[in-house]
Amino acid sequence: MQSKFVKALTVASFVAAAFSATTTFAADKIIKIDGSSTVYPITEAVAEEFQAAQKVKVTVGESGTGGGFKKFCRGETDISDASRPIKKSEMDACKEAGIQYIELAIAYDALTVVVNSKNDFVKSISVDELKKIWAPGSSVKNWNQVNSSYPNQPMALFGPGTASGTFDYFTEAVNGKSGSSRSDYTPSEDDNVLVQGVASNNGGMGYFGLAYYLENKDKLRALPIVAKAGAAAVLPSSETVMDGTYQPLARPLFIYVNATAAAFRPEVKAFVNYYLANAPKLVKEVKYVPLPADDYTAVTAHFKSMKPGTGFGGNAEVGIKIKDLLSRIK
After folding, report:
1. What is the mean pLDDT of the chain?
2. What is the mean pLDDT of the segment spanning 41-52?
3. Pick from 136, 126, 120, 114: nearest CA to 191
C-alpha cells in the first residue's frame, strides 16, 4: 500500500525520473491491459512484439470498453483499451479511487454496417434509415419496412453489447444519444460472434469495426453510408476515413494509461513509448487506419508531458480532431 506521502505527490513530480529510468526490467514484471475488443488486435500485436524484445509479460484482455474501464478504475489494470472516450461515471469512479489517467489516441476505425453476402437489394443505407432500424422502440422487423422496394424478408439484427464502446459510438452517431438503441437484437462483446450471426442469416445486418469486416469480406457485404440527404454514398476504407468523407461512423481509438504506473514503473512507460513508436506499422498490419504522422508526434509529446485527464466532457463526440482534443487537456 502506498504511504500518505507518496499519495500526496503529483505524477508530474516524477516526469524527469520516469523518463530517465533504465529499460532493463526484472523478468517478473507484468503489464495488465483490458478493454475494447476493437482495440484488442492492435494492443495484442504491440504486446507480442514488445515481449519479444523485453523480458516483460503483457496480458491483454477484451472484456469491452466498459468492462475494461471498471477494472482500470479499480486499479486492476495498468492500461485500458477503449473504442470511445471515458464516460463521466467512469471519470468519477477513477477519481474516487485516486486513479489518474493519460488519454492517448492510437488509431482510427470505421464502424462498418454489414449485411449477408446474399443480400443484393440494399445498395447503400442512409443514417436516417439506420436510425429507423436501430432507434429505441423501433418496430422494423422486415426489410420492406425500411424501403418499400426491398423484399418482405425478415431482418435479423446483430450488434455489440451495451458494455461495448462500439455500441456507445454507433448509438451516439446514429440515434443522437450514447446508449440509445432498440434492445431486441442479438448482442455480443465478441465481434466474431456478430460476423457469424450475419453470415449465417440471409436477412442479417450488423455493425462492428472495419478490421473484422476486412477479415470476413468473403462472408459479408459492407454498406456504403449516406450521411445526409443528397450526399454521396461512401464505403468505409482507410482512404475515406483519412480524407474525412466517411461520416459519421469514423472514430478515434484510445488507450488510457494509469498515470502513476507510467511515472513509477519504467516497464509501463517503455511499453507505451514502444506502442506509439510502432503504431503506424502495426495498426496497418491489423487492418485499422493509422493516425497522420503529425498526430502521432503530438500524442507522443503529450505522453512525455504526462498530462493526466481527458479532452472529452464525459460523452463521445463525432468528428473530433486529435490535435483539438489534446489542446483541451490542461
Report:
1. 90
2. 96
3. 114
